[in-house]
Design goal:
This protein is an alpha+beta fold. The protein is 30% helix and 46% strand. Helix 2 crosses helix 3. The radius of gyration is 14 Å and the shape is globular.
Length: 127
């Protein structure tokens, strides 16, 4: 499978952020990310494979039982792409939605930033 921006975005969401097993996730990170890749979210800035893997492990610890799912198709323009996603318990509507923005260099993710505002969905919300 070619490392198009659209493919990188989808695989990153499912195989990196969606993978609970750290060892398996580490292989996906090495396949999709540049060694000096940077991930930025509201909690920090993480550089390199190990830092990214640790950040995702912390995310899984904070939200046990939650899964990621793409919302719509990824979009790409030159070396930049974006993908909207939902995050929540299996079989339920997402409790959190967000948008990821990436820059790609040499067919690998080199900069990944969560962009936009997390929207939390409460059971009494009409959102």
């Amino acid at each position: 499978m070619a490392n198009t921006i659209e493919n990188l975005l989808t695989r990153n969401l499912l195989e990196v952020f969606g993978e609970r097993a750290a060892v398996k996730r580490r292989f996906a990170i090495a396949a999709l990310w540049a060694e000096d890749g940077v991930f930025v979210d509201p909690y920090g800035r993480y550089v390199g494979y190990a830092a990214l893997n640790d950040a995702v492990s912390q995310l899984h610890a904070k939200f046990p039982g939650y899964v990621f799912a793409p919302i719509g198709a990824p979009q790409a323009f030159y070396d930049v792409g974006r993908l909207a996603w939902g995050h929540g318990p299996v079989g339920e509507p997402p409790k959190v939605t967000g948008l990821d923005v990436v820059t790609v260099r040499d067919s690998a993710l080199c900069f990944y930033r969560y962009a936009g505002h997390l929207r939390y969905r409460h059971k009494n919300s009409q959102i």
